[in-house]
Amino acid sequence: MKKRLIIGVVTAECYRVYIDQMLCGIIAQSSLADCNVIVLAARNNFQAPVSPHIAHEADLYRLIESPCFDGFIYDRNAFASGDIQKYLDDLLRHTGKPVMLLDAGEHPYFENTVSHDPETFSLLIEHMIQVHGHRKIYCLTGTRGTTQAKERLETYFHVMKRHGLYYDENYYAYGDFWRNAPVQYAQRLISGELAMPDAIVCANDIMADALIAALAKAGIRVPQDVAVTGFDGYLDDAMSAVSLTSFPHSCYQLGADAFRRLFRIITGKSCRRLQTMHSRIQIGQSCGCLPVMRQSEKSRREQRLLSVYKEWFYHSEVLFELMHTESLHDLLMLIASRIYLVCHWNQFRIFLTDSYLKSVQAHTHARYDCCEVLWTDRAGKSSGISEHPLNQAEIVSYLTQEQAHPIVYYLSALHMDERQFGIAALSFGKLPCCYQPEYCTLISYFCLAFDQLEEKMKLRPQNTGSRKSTENPQLYRQLLQIREEMQQHPEAEWNVQKLCERTHVSRSYLQRMYKRYFGKSIFGELIDFRLQKARELLSGTEFPISQIAELCGYETYTHFAKQFKAQEGITPSEFRKTVL
Fold first, then answer.
1. Residues 260-286: tens digit of each pLDDT
2. What pTM was computed for the model?
3. I need a labelling partner for 462 at 20 to 30 A (CA). Which of 47, 137, 322, 392 fits?
4. Which fold has domain 470-580?
């Protein structure tokens, strides 16, 4: 099998809409080029002040030094701290591999892919002139010295001249593409230093939103007193007091173009270009128009599905369950059974450091610095506890070896302050998508649980109290294995009498001890496992409901529907409608 290129993507907070879109563009284009992608993503952007805990999350980026990467796409704008930018610059430069920046301006060492958007920015100014009839229009552009700020300001000059409209140096100002400069600019308007215009066009949505908020505090209404537009479409309406009129910047296309340029640098060949996604002005309230519905039916279905998974996550007791596990085996099995809370997940792996493994169990892998301890996939082909020792530098090559199709993994650090527990790896299979904020919370829960387990292990030798599993440790281990098998294969025919023969205990003792160990009866848990599988199949496949009932171990649809409604409060068909 031909070796695929492995492209590293260095970013942060990739659940944000615009970063999500860039990643989807990169992933879709990489699939066309038959390349693997490894996303190294911190859960925060290191904005000052940086706590010691957050600072140590940057240790994840040591994987940049892995020799198996062929090149990198570097989203430098995702990081708010100059210190972390310099740290990453140095790491990437020392690899000697090609590095492609995303809309980050000129760099002394790295190539840069920019979005050329003067024509689209002019559409917003034209909208203010031709649709609303505004004549006195100001422009708040971006950071002085950046290509984007210069292009958008020159576009403003060109459109104003074309329509014969007056402007002078008081009509435009440089901003910062962030929230500080717009607040200062608003003060100039509020104080009367600048005369109030008819409209203000801003070089991005974040500045427009900050400007509107600052004006509102002084009682200046948008759009009644002054109209405002943003640009780039990076800001979700839910984050803004007034829905913005803007032009959605094609972050998807930016990501795809960056990958194509990097691919050409590495191979000297061109790969087929993804079709450009059509965009148009998105109408909001900030210009004075009535806002229009922006989402397609497909987008609305996706949002409904994400809402369902979000509700599952926040209604679950996953943190409580994680914190009350008593062994690494129990903790890993619980993680494997709760990863379904991540929408669209396909594969999930955990690699733990050698030092952490030594602290929680007997461990002999002295020649290696980490070990894969969990591998589970949605299809159920392989799941459960594994033990594959390797070095951290080998994780990237290990994840991408012998795959039938291009693979994408999102890597996240597992740590508590400076103590590194390991790395989590999440894949969505062939889907070009990204995780939601809830996944970051789930990773934080895992870190808390690993930390709590380590503390329990330190205290255990001093604890002379009895534990549930010490009454009959052999039976506890047997039931733990049975429970694991039920989680993975709830559709199988489970019979108490056969379990009694397998464990060599009576029916009453088996049932009593199972409930004592796990808090539920055997068949109570089996129903939970079957209905969880049903929920995943209803939301993630188009199988007929009668077939789903059979796949979950039910002999009749009626029995399945009755148990499903008793637990969920709605029928299986009604449930499917809520997530599709």
1. 999 999 999 998 887 665 567 888 899
2. 0.72
3. 322
4. Arc Repressor Mutant, subunit A (1.10.10)
